[in-house]
Amino acid sequence: MADRDGHTFQLEVVTPQRLIVSEEVEELVAPGAEGYFGVWPGHTPFMTTLKIGELSYKRRGEERFLAVSWGYAEVRSEKAIILVETAERSEEIDAARAEEAKARAEERLRRWGDETIDFARAQAALERALTRASVAARRR
Predict the structure, then answer these.
(1) How many H helices and E strands in the chain?
(2) What is the pTM assigned to this prediction?
(3) Are residues 63 and 84 in the same domain?
(4) Domain limits at 111?
(5) In 99-117, which positions are buried (b, 16+ CB within 10 angstroms) versus exposed (e)?
(6) Which of 43, 50, 89, 112 has the most Cβ atoms closer than 10 angstroms to its Cβ?
(7) Distance (Å, rounded) from C-alpha 66 to C-alpha 99?
(8) In a shared domain, residues 86 and 97
(9) Mind listing the pLDDT tens digit for each residue in 41-95?
(10) Does any domain span residue 109?
């Protein structure tokens, strides 16, 4: 529910495994399938699909970041619900592991023409690794 002055709205980020975020926030920026979008208190309601990318939100003026992959967003004037396949806070991400995943995905993509490589999967793995590395670099 929005605060009395209408300066915040409820944000919930949920994966199939757990509730990641349930907080009153001032602002949200998420990776929509058609591009990043922003949400503020009193926003016009809408629903959209999400892609791999960084989700950021402001709480008490402090910006926080999550690496998310595929899902849906439902935005209401007083609440935004983000349902995603995966979501990780910056402090949960192992930066070295993300860099290793990036290197593996890049190597697979270099092998263009190799029938044993699923290029769509390799591209998605690269996007996830790049997002995770970027979010990990934003640790407080």
Answers:
(1) 2, 8
(2) 0.81
(3) yes
(4) 93-136
(5) eebbeebeebeeeeeeeee
(6) 50
(7) 17
(8) no
(9) 999 999 999 999 999 999 998 999 999 999 999 999 899 999 999 999 988 887 7
(10) yes
